[in-house]
Known about the structure:
Blueprint: H1 2-21, E1 23-28, H2 38-45, H3 48-51, E2 54-58, H4 67-72, E3 78-81, H5 83-91, E4 96-101, E5 108-113, E6 128-131, H6 137-146, E7 151-154, H7 160-163, E8 169-173, H8 177-183, E9 191-195, E10 207-211, H9 212-217, H10 219-238, H11 240-254, H12 260-274, E11 275-276, E12 279-280, H13 287-299, H14 310-313
Parallel strand pairs: 1-2, 1-3, 6-7, 6-8
Antiparallel strand pairs: 3-10, 4-10, 5-8, 5-9, 11-12
Helix pairs in contact: 2-10, 2-11, 10-11, 11-12
Amino acid sequence: MRRVVALAAVLLLCASTAMADTQTLRFQPHWVPQAQFAGFYLAKEMGWYQDAGLELEILPHGAEHPAPATLARQEADVALLYLTQALELREQGVDVVNVAQLIQDSSLVLVSLAESGILVPEDLDGQRVSRWASFSLQPEALFRTYGVHPDTVDQGATMAALRTGAVAAATATRYNELVELYLSGLDPDEIEVMPLEDHGVGLAEDGIYVLESTLRERPEAVRTFVEVSLRGWEYAFAHPDAAVDAVMDRVIQAGEPTNRAHQRLMLEALRPLYLEDEALRGPHLDRQDYQLAVSLMRNLGHLEWEPVPYEQFHQDVTQ
Length: 319
C-alpha cells in the first residue's frame, strides 16, 4: 500500500511539473477566419502546440480585432502582420520584431474586366479605381511610378463594385478576391490581372511578429510557436482536405459567409506564395525585401523616421 501511495505521489509531481512548464501564448491573426490561417488552425487541432509545451489561444479575428493594435496593446503575444503594418508600428514607437516571414512575395493585383481595355498601368489614368485604405501604399506606388492619376475610392469587403461597373479597376489578393471573382462566374479570359509584383512595387506580406520584450523574456515560447506553425503549414499543403476541414470549423463558428470550395481554392492559391519546390520558402525575411518596403514607404511619406537596422527588425528564431 505504501508503494502505491508513493507511486501516485510521483505521478502527481510529474503532472504538476508538466503543467508548470506549459506556457500560454495568445495569437492574433489579422483577418476573418479563412484558409489564410490554415497552418495555425491545423497545428492547433492536431495538438502540436500543446505537445510542444504551449497552450495556444487563437484570439477572435476579423475587422473588429485589428492585429497591429492588439499586439501594440499587449493583448496578444504574437500576431500575424503585413510587413508594412509592422513598419508602421515601428514608426509609432512600438518595438515589433519579425521572427518569421511566411509570404515572401506580394499577392496584390489590380483587376479589371477585360471589356474595359485596361491592360497597362497607363490605362488607369483618370479611371475610377478602388483600393483598401489600409493597403493603399502599393497601388499609390504604382500610380506614382507611372505618373498616372486615377480617381481612387475606398473598397469594401467584396468585389461588387467591379462586377457592377461602379469602378473600372479594383484591388485584390490572388488567394481571396481573385478567387471570389472566378467563383462568381467570370472566366479567366474575362478578367485582366495586373500584378503589382511585376511593376517593382510588390512587397512581402504575412509575417509572424512579437514585441522585443516578449522575445527577450520568452524566447523558447516564441521559437516553439514558430517551429510548430511552420510544421502546421507544411502539413496543410500536404493534406489539403484536413486543412480545409480545420478552416471550415473556424468559419462555421464565426458565421463567415464563405464555403468549402472557396476555402479550398484559397489554399491552392496560397501554395506558390508559401512553397518553392514543395518546401516552405520562409521563415527568413530577405534583406532586400525589407529595404524595398522601407524605401517605398519613405518615398510616399508613410515613414518619417529612420527605421531600425534590418538585423534588429528581423530575427530568425529557428536558427
